[in-house]
Design goal:
The structure holds 3 protein chains of 3 kinds. Chain A contains 21 helices and 4 strands. By secondary structure, chain A is mostly helical. In chain A, the strands form 2 sheets. Chain A has a two-stranded antiparallel sheet with strand order 1-2. A two-stranded antiparallel sheet of chain A has the order 3-4. The longest helix of chain A is centred in the middle third of the chain and has 31 residues, at 221-251. The mean pLDDT of chain A is 93. By secondary structure, chain B is α+β, with helices and mostly antiparallel strands. In chain B, 11% of the residues lie in helices and 21% in strands. Chain B is built from 1 helix and 5 strands; from the N terminus they run E-E-H-E-E-E. Chain B has one helix at residues 50-62, and strands at residues 24-30, 40-44, 77-80, 83-85, 102-107. A 5-stranded mixed β-sheet of chain B has the order 2-1-5-3-4, covered by helices on one side. In chain B, a hairpin with a 2-residue loop joins strand 3 and strand 4. Chain B is globular. The relative contact order of chain B is 0.24. By secondary structure, chain C is α+β, with helices and mostly antiparallel strands. Chain C has one domain: Monooxygenase component MmoB/DmpM (Phenol Hydroxylase P2 Protein, Alpha-Beta Complex). Chain C is 21% helix and 42% strand. Chain C contains 2 helices and 7 strands. In chain C, the strands form 2 sheets. A 4-stranded antiparallel β-sheet of chain C has the order 2-3-1-5, covered by helices on one side. In chain C, helix 1 crosses helix 2. The mean pLDDT of chain C is 93. Classes of the chains: A mainly alpha, B alpha+beta, C alpha+beta. The interface between A and B is large, with 52 and 50 residues.
Chain lengths: 515, 119, 89
Amino acid sequence: MDMNAKKKLGLKEKYALMTRNLGWETTYEPMDKVFPQMDYEGIRIHDWDKWEDPFRLTMDAYWKYQAEKEKKLYAIIDAYAQNNGHLNVTDARYINALKIFLSAVPSLEYNAHRGFARLGREMRGVGPQVACQMQAIDEIRHAQTQIHSLSNYNKFYNGFHDWKHMNDRVWYLSVPKSFFEDACTCGPFEFIIAIGFSFEYVLTNLVFMPFISGAAYNGDLGAMTFGFSAQSDEARHMTLGLEVIKFMLEQDPANLPIIQRWIDKWTWRGVRLLTIVAMLMDYMLPKRVMSWKEAWEVYFEENGMALFNDLARYGIKVPDCAALIKKEKDHISHQAWNAFYTAGMITNFHTWLPSEDEMNWLSSKYPDSFDKYYRPRFEYYRQREKEGKRFYNKTLPMLCQVCQIPMLFTEGDDPTLISYRQIEHKGDKYHFCSDHCQHIFEHEPEKYVEAWLPAHQIYQGNCFAEGADPTAPGFDPLKSVLDYWHLDFGRDNLDFEGSEDQKNFAAWRQQATTN
Amino acid sequence: MTIASIRPYGGTPKDTEDKFHGNRILYVGWDRHLMFYAPICFCIPPSMAFADFVAGPLAQAFGDHPQWAQIDWTKANWLRSNQPFSPDGAKSLHDNGLGHKEVLRLQTPDLQGIGGCAI
Amino acid sequence: MSNVFIALQANEDSRPIVDAILADNPGAVLNEQPAMVKIDVPGRMTIRRSSVEARIGREFDLQEMQVNLISLSGHVDETDEEFTLSCER
């Protein structure tokens, strides 16, 4: 690379020419009509030229380096596939983490692509336009590389076959789906705070650093390579997110309360969404790099709080939800696994009980909570399994109207009691998992009354298999809902123990290591 | 506060009672029995007697728990919307004042989950 | 003072960059994790083109780092000569 490159222009000069100087003041139409989305959220921008471009990446350099990343990535993916790399993962249980990843994340990336493509058009300043356009291309690349990498697993294992269909329908996948649709239906400034700042800057490190490093540790080169390749773009995205927030705060003091509310809302929305990542890290990686709690302490409490301290000079306060988050970090991964293990009849992946060794690891990482609250639960489930009575919860859960997560979170000060919050709005009752989800609803009830809550949709009769007749004698609603999800009962769901995946992996691994 | 949007926003509730074919949504959680990871969402005719609801759908949902059969119903308490509630078993859900999307919590002070561990 | 950090993929391209950072930034702490390295520095971190070039014996464009970069924190300032992360702009 660049061995003989003769630079004609300095970086700053080149950047100015190839970015800022591409913009112009329109004359046929007034600028306000060309950029009609800039006003209605209440954000005031006086001078777009004050925008600082932190990464001085021009489109020509962008294509060059992105092409190089892609070549590296596909070289690794090809080698991994050709070498039957899937048989080198630590344990076939791990593959279930990838099923969740595939059915949840590429759709988020794709929606991020749509959102930033829109912002690339709608932002009035040239600096953010170019940055948003690059980000839009990055995000579609992430969706594509994730799908390509994971398609290799679909050749061998169950549950990978219809991730997009499931993303739009399966009960728990409404959580990530509705998160991003909430962001995409915001105005451009809120979208960029939601995704560029709260999600990318404050939270994605938790997905792509400890979890993907964990994938590498578990022998999954496929996930490692798309994960790190994506996160290398995130570094630019985070920088954009931070720049946007500072720019808005510097432009007008009236922007502060609006931005504070968005930060409060989206930090909480993101934290709730990461519950599933907490579970992936603590329960689904057979070899563990660090616990969710440790990752949280490094990436949120240390880095995230440093960021909020820095923003304090603009008047930004640490979101109120931080107090509850601090209490919940000892609990959410265990509560989520308790939910999915017992709901294992309606999941598109397998579930299992942690082994004795794994429980000891969890005790050491969660000395204040695991042995007291969660180990007894898993031991009781183990006893039931031994008696041939593996517990499956056959009901539909009550969901939070905002985050759409089943109401599984407990009171901050009592991890044995579910946290219930409720209000009435225009004669109807609405329920929430927390004060923070309730406050989000109260601010924009018109938006959240329209939530597509899977449990309610099933009862309304909107989630049965095509052509099914719920009034026919012997109609089995559960079976019909699973058909509607394209979930194959007995193959895709239920316990890992005894699954086709478990048997195949063991047989293939044996074939790979013996004659 | 109304929503910030570029055009008027509908805000049509998705889960009003009329959409459930004559039934109502009723949520029930059993405090300190977290083998049931979240309160359960039922879809029930409002004309069903409260006692029939407990003996039928509720028992079906919770009956797999060994403490279900041990409940002393004279000591069990109910909360409706987090406030004390005394249902009349013979009356219908509707006549007990249970509207659409009501939430009930069952409290069994003598039974705090397996081994007292909220399981 | 808060830390800033940079994380790079653990590979041959990153090694001279990591060495340059450790040499040029007193207080830098190296944290090696599976497949990645993370370097934390209190307050401010500078990556110098000249330091990397001295280690690899060829011209180096700091933007080449994009290929192996995983994540970072702090405010970025990028010139031909230096890539700087700092807690405050």
